[in-house]
Amino acid sequence: MTSVPSSPTSGEPFDSLIAAMLRGEWVNPETGRRAAAIPFLDIRLMDTTEGAEADLVAPLGLGRRLAVICDPRTHEALGARVARGLRAIAAIDETVVDFDEADAFAVAQIRERTRHADALIAVGSGTLQDLVKYATFLDRRPFATFATAASMNGYTSITASISNEKGFKQSLKAHTPRGLFMDVAVAAKAPPYLARSGLGDCLCRSSAQVDWRLSSRLLGTPYFELPFMLQAHDEAKLFKSAAGLATGNREAIRTLYRLLTWTGLGTCFTGTSHHGSMSEHLVSHWIDMFAGKDHPGTLHGHQVGYAAVSMSRLQHLVLDSGEPPVLSASSVDRAAIMARYGEEMGKHCLSALSAKALDEATARRLSAEMARDWDAFRKPLREVMLPSAVLENALQAAGGYVTAAQSGLPAGIYCQALVHAREIRDRFSILDIAAEAGLLEEFAARHSAVECKTSAKGDAA
Fold it and tell me: Do the bridges between strand 119-124 and strand 143-147 make them parallel or antiparallel, or are there none, so unpaired?
């Protein structure tokens, strides 16, 4: 079993690869053809952006009136300095916001408070990045980003994670910043829990790749190898340096930033986020939407990290078995769904489940396909799987949450998340295989209970 997929780009300097992609001169190793230019004017991973703010932004053509958007923490860490530096080239308005969640209300507030500006400068990470990305997309205004933490892979993605008025988290079409500037010195000084979140967001490569290959093999879902080729070199390097994330080691932070950048850029080349968001992300989204007062306040990446461990265990349970799973026709319980989620969310979940539901004939056909030559069927899935222990060791080395129980999430809530996460999106994954094979509920109950017994609450702050 290989630890990571091989990559024709392994070891190539980050800056030269990005420059070729920006110019549209980079050759896609999966197709052998030159890829279209990525939708950025500039991407920089720098030791520090101090003193270079105006020189970085000026070539982007953002206009004469700029709104620098930050929250109280990122204003102190970098926002105030960016605003000072940009006054040499534009009229600057500093807009400090403090939103706990990227939702429709916060998007509306950003749009209203910055409507006078030609463009926005986002200084922050996850929530703030999604808000600015989506608000400017709706207004058809450009923006640029000064990243303050290596905490998530959304800096370079073409989607934004936004909750609607009912709290339902959606991955919405958005646009990319004209310029992305990652300051390693600032990120190294950020609270370590932010880098641990970024690590968690990266750990899903293995579980997502298995899920995507599985969906492609059984349902014909379009699949691309390229996103995993881009990640391979830095994934291996990050696992070796994960402990450095706990101490703000700059080389570890730099490696994490590179890997997060590649993951986000995968969406630009494929038009989908399947390579970085499958079963493990569904579990995290379910927790954010439905844990309620039991939510321990963890970040999305923290949840993705321990969910990736859980999904790895489930994938190994199914794929390491000597016998292939036997699938039954899907049972979509409308009454139970509506009772669990309410009218509006229930309708969405019913639609998602129905889109991937298996009728009796399809269930028999897929079961027969797996049984025809089980070893041949599972070989391309197992060859890209990582042992669960590899993921656990990386999280542990960085001081992160290895289990949901360590994060403070009650075992009963995590059990529900594992059972019901597949209901919120139509992406077909190991959760659907396990459910239709009658394995999911037992796995969820046993796994969440064992986690609770074996995990003492850790400190990942």
Answer: parallel
